Amino acid sequence: MSVLNVYERTLTSASASSFEEKMATMFHWDGWESIDAPLLTSLIVMVILAILGIIIGVKARIGLKKKTYLKKPKGIMFLAEIYYNTCNNFAVSNMGEERITWGGYFWTLLAYLFLAFTISLFAFPSLVDWLACPLCLAIIMFTIIQVKGIKYSKFGYFKRFTEPIFIFLPINLVTFWAPLISTTMRMFGNALSGTILIGLIQWVLGNLSSNIFVSMGIAGTIQTSAAWSVFWNQPWTWTSIFLSPIPVGILQIYFSLFSGFIQTLVFASLSAIWISQEMPSGASEKKEAGVEQAMVKE
């Protein structure tokens, strides 16, 4: 089965699948039959980012050899430099001066998440209101938090579950999963609410538009050939598209651009704060590095 056939099949069957069916098959893999429209959209987003990364990397390598980096950048390299500095500044402002190397992580995260919100403007199926997308991003963030906690706290990492006393173990185990659950539900809920609101407004305006045409006696009165008679004599096939495009388009732009930017910034900021909380300050790291060097010399 080709990719286009999969895309067409998943688009036509998306409305017929219930939430329970989607949840039951979300992590089930059965070849091409398991690929639905949001998953294919996610792959398209990753391909776009990979192509942009290759182009920027090749141009940067060429510029390094020809020493054109000494000149003012132009075109895509100018935009790439602005984005690079923005990600580094974001990492420094949220994690500290010594965490500037985390700019590469936010380079990828911000680009993927914002493109996931805005790709629906180009007639692709929405990606962020597909539960697997925010869940996977939250799992990545949650895994980094725990890895950094174990790396720097060592055995003291497990002590947090019994603080201040052992009786708080059940409560601490519940709060342990808070970053994973809260970030997933926050992003998924905001994206899904926008989709539902747009769908309701489109349904109301579509029915209102159809009723207006029917009340005017226009629907079904246009004389056409036999090939078009079925189309014109079914008012709901064409009279419902006159009132909804502008309001729905404005809402689509708002939820994709403005709300998408806010949700991207919130998720990235929470990731930076939670990850940095598991890591020692720069002074502590330097002190630990000095102790390790002294032990090696001895």
Description:
It is a single chain. The protein is mainly α and 298 residues long. It has one domain (36-281). It is 70% helix and 0% strand. The protein has eleven helices and no strands. It has helices spanning 3-13, 19-25, 37-66, 76-95, 103-118, 132-153, 169-176, 178-215, 226-232, 245-277, 282-297. Helix 6 (132-153) runs antiparallel to helix 8 (178-215) and helix 6 packs parallel to helix 10 (245-277). The longest helix is centred in the middle third of the chain and has 38 residues, at 178-215. The chain starts with a helix and ends with a helix. The model is unreliable at 1-16, 220-228 and 286-298 (pLDDT under 50).
Number of strands: 0
Radius of gyration: 26 Å
Label the overall shape.
flat
Sheet/helix structural class:
mainly alpha
Mean pLDDT: 76
Number of helices: 11
As residue ranges, the low-confidence spans are 1-16, 220-228, 286-298
- DSSP strand (E) fraction? under 5%
User: Major β-sheet, in short?
Assistant: none
Helical content band? 55-70%
Beginning-to-end CA distance, first to last residue: 65 Å
| Domains (count) | 1
Series of secondary-structure elements, N-terminal to C-terminal = HHHHHHHHHHH
